[in-house]
Every structure is written in structure tokens, then in C-alpha cells.
Amino acid sequence: MNRRELLGASLLLPFSLGAKTTKIDRNRLSSVTDESGKTPAEGIAFAHKHGLKWLEVRAVPGAKKHYADMTAEELKQAAKEFKDGGVRVSFFNSGQCKFLLPGTEPQKPRTETPEQRTTRLAKDQLAFDRREADLMKSIRAAQALGTDKVRVFAFLRTVDPGKDMQRIVDVLGPLVKISEKEGIRLTLENEVACNVASCAELAAYMKAIPSKNFGVNWDALNGLHVKETPFPEGYKLIPKAKLWNVQIKGKSVLKGYATDWIDWAPIFTALEKDGYAGQVGLECHIFGAEQIAKSHESMIEMLRIAEKRG
């Protein structure tokens, strides 16, 4: 077994042995750094303020650059900053396959000139053509930062997602195989703008691609936005052995947003009962000048929910 295989095996160990009930508390919570700080240092300071041991990454806070686009030296420095800050990276939020699959039409018609359409189609085709290269960039970045979980989407939602499913599976399958060789678990997110938006759709894709390296990043609020009842109905559909990351939107945890609020206490309890061993990450998504403040409010509420249950 080489070093890469050993790393992958060690990262998968808690899942392959079957996790016992593990309490979701401060030690299991995380936050996406580019929504909780304007610099990487502020993102780490956010973790310190709330006593967190984990952080998720996406774009580099304060920079117009994704962690996937960093050089090897920049990633080495970033990994050192996390280590020196006493936090680990729980999840790598890539934007993999979050564009329209060439040859399909968007669910919501777009108002665009012929020139704009030509430009858009060319951009989507380029992203499609470089999908494997882009995945490798995310994999290398995730490995450098010490996490084995990389997010993927099922392309922007089409007029008939069910009809296009097999085409999408045929594209995602090889990406999963690449990830498997690298000791990386590719996690499919249910995103309202994409072909997988509900737990039912997540379950269908988990069945269609039965790889041990293909699992779920569950965002309950995204399901709510497509008229799904996230819990308990939606949650019941997710294969629990495939649930590797959970994300919470700020509006789903703060009671000031009535139409988006979700009762997370029973969800935490169910996750524990079902042996969920991953982290629960805050992706605030309350944009504008108040975003960082709302991230703090959301994390305080997440901690309250976790601790209130005893």
C-alpha cells in the first residue's frame, strides 16, 4: 500500500468500521470560511471564537480565487495556517459540474441574445471538456488541506431532469472512479438549481452509482425550496451509510426567517441515532453587509441546539 492509499484508508476508517452513536456537539460543528471571515485569518478566528475544531473551505476569504486554483506552495501555506490555528478542514466545497450539461436546455428559459447564447454554450462546453482536469485540481487541493471529501453537483437543472439522469450518471461515474483512485469521497449535493435538488433525487443517484466513494452532502433547506419536507420524510430517503456531510443555511436555523426555518433539534438526534460520523457545517448564505454577523448568530444558535439536547 502506497502513501496515498494509506491516507485514503485512514480517512475512511471511521466509516468502514461502522460508527457508533456520536453526539453532535461543538466538536462536530463547522463553518464555510468565506462566509464567516473576510480573510483566512478571520475564518480561523471565527472557529476560535466558537470553539470549533473544523472548518469547510470554498473560495479563499477576501480573494477572488477558489482553493482549487491555488498553487501547490499556496496550498502548503494554507494548510500550515489551519494547522497552526488548531483547526482541520472537514469538507471541500468544489463547484464541480455546476453548469448546464451540453445538449440540454435549462428548466427556466433565459432571456438572451443569440450572441449571448453562443457565448454561454461555449463556456459550458469548455467547463464540460475540462471536468476531469478541474476535478483533479479540487482533489489535489483537498488532499493538501487534509480532507477526503469533495463536493460535486449534477449540472444545472434541465427541462426534464428524469430524462437526462442517465446521461448525467454516465458523466459522473468516471469522475467517481477518478476520486476513488485518489482516496477521495465525491459527495453529491442536493442543490435547488441543479438536477439533484431533493432527497428522493439524491437516493436515486446513490442507487445508480453504487460506489463506496460516492456519497451525499445534504442541505435540508435546498430540499424545502423544492417543496420537499426535509425531515423526517426527505431524510428517511437518504442512505445513511452514504451521508458524509451535512450543511445548514443560516435562514434555516434563525427563527427570524419563518418560511425557511427548520427544527434542527430532532434532525441532530436522528443523525446521532443513525450513526452519522461527519460534521455539520454552516453555510450561512445570508448575503450582504450582515453576512459575517449572521454567521456568528447562526453558529450561536447551532451550538444552543446541540447543547440544549443535553
Keywords for this structure?
310 residues; alpha/beta; TIM Barrel; 8-stranded parallel sheet; 13 helices; 8 strands; globular; disordered N terminus
Describe it for me?
This protein is of the alpha/beta class and 310 residues long. The protein has a single domain, classed as Divalent-metal-dependent TIM barrel enzymes (TIM Barrel, Alpha-Beta Barrel), CATH 3.20.20. It is 48% helix and 13% strand. The protein has an eight-stranded parallel beta sheet with strand order 1-8-7-6-5-4-3-2. Strand 4, helix 7 and strand 5 form a beta-alpha-beta unit. Helix 8 packs parallel to helix 10. It is globular. The N and C termini lie far apart (43 Å).
Give a nutshell description of this structure.
With 310 residues, the chain is an alpha/beta fold. Helices cover 48% and strands 13% of the residues.
